[in-house]
Amino acid sequence: MLDSFEVNKALGAVLGTFLGIHAVSLMAGAVFTPGVPAKPGYEIAVTEAPTAGSQQTPKAPEEPIEQRLASADPQRGQAATKPCETCHTFEKGGPNRVGPNLYGVVGRDRASEQGFNYSAAMKSKGGKWSFEELDKFLTNPRRDIPGTAMTFAGIDQDRRRADVIDYLRTLSDNPQPLPKVAQSPENPKADDRSDAKGGDTNGAPKGDADSAPKGGDANGAPKGGDTKGGAKNGSKSGAKGGTK
Questions:
Q1: CB atoms inside a 10 Å sphere around CB 166
Q2: Rounded distance between C-alpha atoms, residue 99 and residue 8, angstroms
Q3: Which end of the chain is less congested by CB atoms within 10 angstroms, N or C?
Q4: 95-132: per-residue pLDDT in tens?
Q5: What is the distance between the alpha carbons of residues 97 and 88, in angstroms, rounded to a whole number?
Q6: Which tens digit of pLDDT belongs to each residue from 195-232?
Q7: Does pTM surpass 0.85?
């Protein structure tokens, strides 16, 4: 039977063995562990395949406001302004609400509606509410005039903005004329569309070509006056005179 001394010697030997192995392991790790480079020697770029429906088509360039107004519809614009009636009135002499009355807004000076307390940002902006300025402001009011008190987020759709601006244009005793559309090779009929609401490209009212009397040609000459009648009279008189 082993006494306690022998047992202690055996346990001490086992413990010493484990301690020695652990010490050797720590030393080997310190000596042979490679250093991590600050920058990888090479990188593999992994491109994730786009999932279905995740591809975004590039947005088409925005048409000029002149071109959009040429095909705008004020009735659609009036329908689009229904939510705005919470803050604005549109009739002549209408009261100011959270926002100013908008009758005659197209072409008038900024911050000029009597009795309305405009923000300092709007007052300092200056200028007039032209078609272009209204288009920029209605796209994103706070981006166009930082500090404006208008909380409206804006109208993203280009065509809808044009409809709204065209409707606002009609709210006037003397509506502003539609801007001229620059004719381009890609859009040769732009001028015709821009003048379709008010007249032809030379400023003549619609129907001038049809306003000539039915008995005359496009230049106002009566039918047959310079053609059949003139030819017949001339030929007969010439013939008679020649024979005599």
A1: 25
A2: 95
A3: N
A4: 999 999 999 999 999 999 999 999 999 999 999 999 99
A5: 6
A6: 445 444 344 444 444 444 444 444 444 444 444 444 34
A7: no
For tokens 């040609």, the residue is 217
Provide the CATH topology of domain 65-176: Cytochrome Bc1 Complex; Chain D, domain 2 (1.10.760)
Q: Above 70 in pLDDT, residue 194?
A: no
Amino acid identity of residue 20, one-letter, is G
- Which one has a higher pLDDT value, 90 or 33? 90
The answer to whether 161 and 135 are in contact (CB under 8 A) is yes
Q: How far apart are CA 220 and CA 212, in angstroms?
A: 6
Beta carbons of 162 and 156 less than 8 angstroms apart: no
Does 59 or 160 have the greater pLDDT score?
160
Number of C-beta neighbours around residue 119 at 10 A: 14
